[in-house]
User: What shape does this take?
Amino acid sequence: MTFSVSVVIPAHNSARTLGACLDSVYAQTAPVHEVIVVDDGSTDRTAEVAEGYPCTLIRRTPNRGVSAARNAGIAAATGDILFFLDSDEALTPDSVANSLEILAADPECGCVHGVIAPDPLFDDGPVERYRVLHAHWWRVRGAGVVETAFFAQAAVRREVFERLGGFDERLRDSEDLEFSDRLAPHHRIVLTDRVVALHDEEHRLRPLLAETFRRALVLVPALASARRGGRRNLTANSPASVAAAALTLATLPLAPWYPVLPALGALGFCAANGRLLRFVAGHRGPGFVPFFTGVHFLVITALVSGAAVGTVRMLLPDRADGAGAASATAAEPGATPGATPGTAPGTGAAR
Assistant: This one.
């Protein structure tokens, strides 16, 4: 079966990465029917970069978020398959061809999505190397038939949107999770390591931790919603890893009297992440492991703290600030427990 492919790229202030993204699309081994860039209220040279390529450019103001941008691309697309690609990512050359092969072999499969490469699109330092290594690790580990789709690099049959509608435009985060809730009961979802994208990730520690905390505020409600729907989400961090980090934090005040307690928690954290750390050592060398471990502990600490604050807010009656609303923010869609954030604000997928 021959499919026509429309590549839809939502973009917001993506001038730095959009060229590399589009270069990767036009270098695909499978022919692409059309490329649609949706410039969602950018204030940089995003539109100018897009105009240098033979793509369709849709300019929208003001910025309305990734869901609205993707829906605009869906409305303009004419292909049988819509391939969504974030503008801060670049595909490996056979990614589109591999996704089409998987869809053709399985008529019940409605969505094929891929993994993050273990190396960044642009290497801006060790924090970014940490981010992409961890993102690559847990996605590859979860490859197969899944119940959650990530649309940063995903091929979706057009009839899926004809049946289910588009993305929820009220959501700037967690749109993947909400759409997956509608998608999984009707179509098979495949996560494959044959679709690979290099990602330009957050490279500063403080914004990374702040974003992790923010997204974790609705982690508990999101997990509860998934369980009520009978869905089993992908796992970014093991329960043992999260528990060990929480134990270390809880026992730190006792360190002057019982230093063995936080030390045991730290050892437990390293043991719980043993396979991950061995992967890191193999890819980046043993010297990178201590840095990776320290940042990973801080990220999970931010996650545990955010989840705890979010749970308290959820339980408090008459919250004036509405902080418990799951439509505002979320942990990385479908990843449990404690997924790390997917895209930094103001970059990539028109967040």
